[in-house]
Amino acid sequence: MQILGYRRPDGKVGIRNHILIIPTSVCSSTVASNIASQIPEAIALPNQHGCCQIGTDHEQTVRTLIGFGKNPNVAAVLVVGLGCEGIPIRETAAEIATSGKPVEVVIIQEIGGTLKTEAEGLRKAAELVRQVSHLQPEKVDLSELSLAIECGGSDFTSGLASNPASGIAADLLVAAGGNVMLSETTEFIGAEHVLARRAKSKDVAEKLFKIVHDCEERAKLLNVDIRDGQPTPGNIAGGISSIEEKSLGCIYKAGHAPIQDVLRYGEIPQGKGLYIMDTPGQDIDSITGMLAGGATVVIFTTGRGTPTGSPIAPVIKITANERTFKMMEDNMDLDASPIISGEETIEQAGHRIFEEIIAVANGRRTKAESLGYREFGIYKIGPTY
Amino acid sequence: MKKQAIVINPKDNVATVVDDFPPSTIIHFFVGQSERTVQLLQDIPLGHKFAIQEIKVGEEILKYAESIGLATTLIQPGQHVHVHNMDTQRGRRDK
User: Fold this and answer.
1) How many domains does chain A have?
2) How far apart are CA A262 and CA A204, in angstroms?
3) A9 in a domain, yes or no?
4) What residues have CB less than 8 Å from A356, skipping those under 6 apart?
5) Which H or E run contains A288?
């Protein structure tokens, strides 16, 4: 099967053609968003980090910003730095530029204040628009698609219906040679042994057990209880009684394919098939990590309903809760509730999800895209110093 | 008849209701291929679970054929199974 996609200079394929403005520090985020506000085709990342972070947090922020810049849904990038932040501004831009796409840089302390930087940034961003606006999508093989799978605001319908149906769609894409990512380490707790049976090797299974163990140990280290945050009050009201129950329902959403590897947060997979990424259960941080890892489309199953979008990728919202679909139709793309009422099988709904992914890849805007929802959040483990 | 409750795996000891049901309702559901009934002892809201057999203190609550936690009280068939009478075994600072 073929889809329409933008072939980037590094050979990767995107399904959108965004111009992305990346502030390397929270201190340059307003300048980045001011520039984007005057360039209709540009999107600025609302970065809240980038300075005074150490160790893994610093690495994750760098990896996420670079990953967003390299993501094939992005055609061109303007990096906006303050000048004194911990993130290396020019190195970040240079690493993004290894993908071959046009990348420009403006630095507030070097140019001399925000007003001059915004003027220079506008000039450069407008030039980027002219460089990439003529690009047209071409027919490419479906195997070029990279799918991230997320669930959030879960209730009983997630585990029973929308997640297993998404799993069917994931299996279809893996069978077609595509890429699928499953994340949310918190929501492997109590289900990791089920997932580990599908690991490609003993080494991959051990990595999976380790990320779950580390996740639990981090909570203990802080003397907190995951029960205080998971399941969420909404999950509990919706009938989910424990993190184990939530996890067992969650893992269905990635289907049945073998697990190729376990990726760090924001890491780009080196092959095709199903990958697991170590992210928190929090939806925005999780989706952000998978997009930094190169995902170009997201399916998002929900029970309670949520508006989540993304700055650079379409997010397809699916619910199998009939009341939620009716209450939040503005935000829900696909109604999988016929599974619950018995009018449709999980396989049939899975095929409908797959068809929706194809339609969105070919250009149909999701509800979150049409409404301009662009949530972004980089996972942060430790304190900022 | 419209589906009332779902037992995901024949090993499970709880069923999930797909509508709101008042006490005394006789719920019909399938465990694998065989149809069974349980009379509810309490209100069971949409999406919540009830026991389909007696579950003793400390026994596993089974859904998806896996443990989702342990019973903290004796649970009778037809009773609501939720955070008030079962508890997670994972992600706890006391374990």
Assistant:
1) 2
2) 6
3) no
4) A316, A333, A334
5) helix A283-292
- Look at the pTM and tell me if it is higher than 0.80: yes
Put simply, whether B3 touches A (Cβ < 8 Å) is yes
Whether residue A155 lies within 8 A of chain B, CB to CB, comes out as yes
Distance CA A273, CA A283 (A): 22
- Among A73, A103, A132, which residue terminates a domain? A132
Residues A62 and A207 reside in one and the same domain: no
- Cβ-contact B53, B13 below 8 angstroms: yes
C-beta of residue A258 within 8 angstroms of C-beta of residue A273: yes
Cβ–Cβ gap B88/A159 under 8 Å: no
Q: Is the domain covering B5-87 a CATH 3.40.50.2300 domain?
A: no
Q: Tell me the angle at which helices A55-70 and A283-292 cross, rounded to the nearest 10 degrees.
A: 60
A163 plus A81 within the same structural domain: no
A156 touches chain B (CB under 8 A): yes
Q: Which one-letter amino acid corresponds to residue B81?
A: V
Q: What is the ipTM of this complex?
A: 0.95
pLDDT in tens, B32-58: 899 999 999 999 999 999 999 999 999
Contact state of A242 with B69 under an 8 Å Cβ cutoff: yes
- Hey, is the C-beta of A257 within 8 angstroms of any chain B C-beta? no
Q: Phi/psi at A292 (nearest 5 deg)?
A: -65, -30
